[in-house]
Amino acid sequence: RLGEFLKKEVNLELSTLPDFEERVIDFSEVEQLMNSINTIPAPCAPVISPQAPNAATGTSLRVCWGLFSDDTVEYYQLCYKPVSNERHSDEQAEHTLKVKETYCTITNLLPNTQYEFWASALNASGISPPSERAVYVTAPSPPIIKTKKILSCENAALVCWESGNINPVDSYMVEL
């Protein structure tokens, strides 16, 4: 029987043409799902470190911060402004810096002045909440010695100076 079957000629042509519909498949939901799987979450808020000893000069401050998580961060946004009791002054303006590292040295600051700092972390998914705010203080300007008022005798000397600082200075160290 197999031999007889194989000897028969079989016509493989279809008698009617198939009628295919032209369908457009919407992959938008699948694409959204795939994109949500590959995205990274927005980072957590950074933590500003307190001012370190010797991290200030009269015109600059070195500010450091960190993250307590393994978040992916492209860069940080460091914001600062001078601390003042006055409202709406030009010196109250906030300044923002884009920083790649977890530290930054800010220059061109006023001597013996308090500045408030806070940071946020950014990546492709968004921006973190801001960190807590930390207050840093620049070093006072050196005093200006009044050379015309210097008096001395065998066992003593009188030296006068002016502070040169807007804000009060806690103490001075005189070296002989």
Detailed description of the structure:
The structure is a single chain. The chain is mainly beta and 176 residues long. It has 2 domains: 47-138, Immunoglobulin-like (Sandwich); 141-175, no CATH class. It has helices at residues 2-7, 28-38, and strands at 47-48, 61-66, 75-82, 95-99, 103-106, 114-123, 126-127, 134-137, 144-145, 151-152, 157-158, 161-162. The mean pLDDT is 85.
Runs in which pLDDT lies below 50 for 5 or more consecutive residues are: none
Strand content: 25-35%
Report mean pLDDT, rounded to a whole number.
85
CATH architecture of the largest domain: Sandwich
Order of helices and strands: HHEEEEEEEEEEEE
| Domain module count | 2
Q: Classify the secondary structure makeup into a structural class.
A: mainly beta
Number of strands: 12
Count helical runs.
Answer: 2
CATH homology-level superfamily of the largest domain: Immunoglobulins
- First-last Cα distance: 125 Å
Main β sheet profile: 5 strands, antiparallel
